[in-house]
Amino acid sequence: MSKKKVALACSECGSRNYSIAENVNRAERLEVKKFCKYCGKHTIHRETK
Questions:
Q1: What does pTM read for this prediction?
Q2: Tens of pLDDT along 5-43?
Q3: Which of 3, 8, 13, 38 fits as disulfide partner to 21, beta carbons 3.0 to 4.6 Å?
Q4: Can you tell me the distance from the alpha carbon of 12 to that of 26, in angstroms, rounded to the nearest whole number?
Q5: Which residues, listed in sequence order, are joined to residue 34 by a DSSP beta bridge?
Q6: Which Gene3D superfamilies match (predicted)?
């Protein structure tokens, strides 16, 4: 059985640059600071459903 994946979207431009495995134990959406190749800088990326 394969794991479901969710995308991480950039908070500034909205592009979905990264994907991670879904964690059902996580109560709130994950927020991490990652590099966005479209903005050209490090921004907050939020988990999308």
A1: 0.83
A2: 999 999 999 999 999 999 989 899 999 999 999 999 999
A3: 3
A4: 24
A5: 43
A6: Ribosomal protein L33
Strand partners, 6: 20
**Nearest C-alpha neighbor of 29 from the set 4, 49, 3, 1:** 49
CATH number corresponding to 5-47: 2.20.28.120
Domain ranges of the chain: 5-47
* Spatial distance between the Cα atoms of 25 and 17, rounded to a whole number of angstroms: 23
3-class secondary-structure state, position 31: strand
Strand arrangement of the beta sheet that strand 5-10 belongs to: 16-21, 5-10, 41-47, 31-36
Q: Cα separations (Å) of 8 from 19, 25, 27, 37, 39?
A: 6, 17, 16, 13, 15
Q: Give the other-Cβ count within 10 Å of 36's Cβ.
A: 21
